[in-house]
Amino acid sequence: MAQENKLKTGPRESVNYPVQVVYCGNCTMPIEYCEYYPEYEKCKQWLEKNLPREFEKVKIGDGSDSPAGDEEKKRQKRGGKGIIKTKKKEEGPKQVCVSRAPRGKKKSVTVVTGLSTFEIDLKVAAKFFGQRFACGSSVTGEDEIVIQGDVKDDLFDVIPEKWPEIDEDLIEDLGDQKR
């Protein structure tokens, strides 16, 4: 008999119908779920400003007087993008390195690295090199362009001509390298 009361369907006597759901103006979720939003502090500020009574209820159930102290509550990271953090580029020396590597018995490729430190789009640069030297050219690494053929000597004139921010002194010749 006790289970029949638990599984009873239909409206409950203690609830006023229709149920009014209050949504947060910051995260657009019901205010009970604001704590799972990555920017919970902004939700609290919005609630304090626009719905002070609901804010008092949230403060009571916040659990801020827990014995954990200053340790921050870990939140669930799944279920959406949340806050996208941008990667900071490492500020290293701005320098373009040019080298030649063997390909097969008699053929070679020219490897150009360091163009991304000058914020040059590598795909655009690879296409430019391919058209300029009438050969294949591709982006092979995070900051590496491989040009088919030995065009290392020509690059010392072509790169400063195409990109004036790269001075001829900033281009370093690494010579022949093993691939």
UniProtKB/TrEMBL annotation:
<dbReference type="InterPro" id="IPR001950">
    <property type="entry name" value="SUI1"/>
</dbReference>
<dbReference type="GO" id="GO:0001731">
    <property type="term" value="P:formation of translation preinitiation complex"/>
</dbReference>
<comment type="similarity">
    <text>Belongs to the DENR family.</text>
</comment>
<dbReference type="InterPro" id="IPR036877">
    <property type="entry name" value="SUI1_dom_sf"/>
</dbReference>
<dbReference type="GO" id="GO:0003729">
    <property type="term" value="F:mRNA binding"/>
</dbReference>
<dbReference type="InterPro" id="IPR050318">
    <property type="entry name" value="DENR/SUI1_TIF"/>
</dbReference>
<dbReference type="Pfam" id="PF01253">
    <property type="entry name" value="SUI1"/>
</dbReference>
<dbReference type="InterPro" id="IPR046447">
    <property type="entry name" value="DENR_C"/>
</dbReference>
<dbReference type="InterPro" id="IPR005873">
    <property type="entry name" value="DENR_eukaryotes"/>
</dbReference>
<dbReference type="GO" id="GO:0003743">
    <property type="term" value="F:translation initiation factor activity"/>
</dbReference>
<feature type="compositionally biased region" description="Basic residues">
    <location>
        <begin position="75"/>
        <end position="87"/>
    </location>
</feature>
<dbReference type="Pfam" id="PF21023">
    <property type="entry name" value="DENR_N"/>
</dbReference>
<feature type="region of interest" description="Disordered">
    <location>
        <begin position="58"/>
        <end position="107"/>
    </location>
</feature>
<dbReference type="InterPro" id="IPR048517">
    <property type="entry name" value="DENR_N"/>
</dbReference>
<protein>
    <recommendedName>
        <fullName>Density-regulated protein</fullName>
    </recommendedName>
</protein>
<dbReference type="GO" id="GO:0002188">
    <property type="term" value="P:translation reinitiation"/>
</dbReference>
<feature type="domain" description="SUI1">
    <location>
        <begin position="96"/>
        <end position="163"/>
    </location>
</feature>
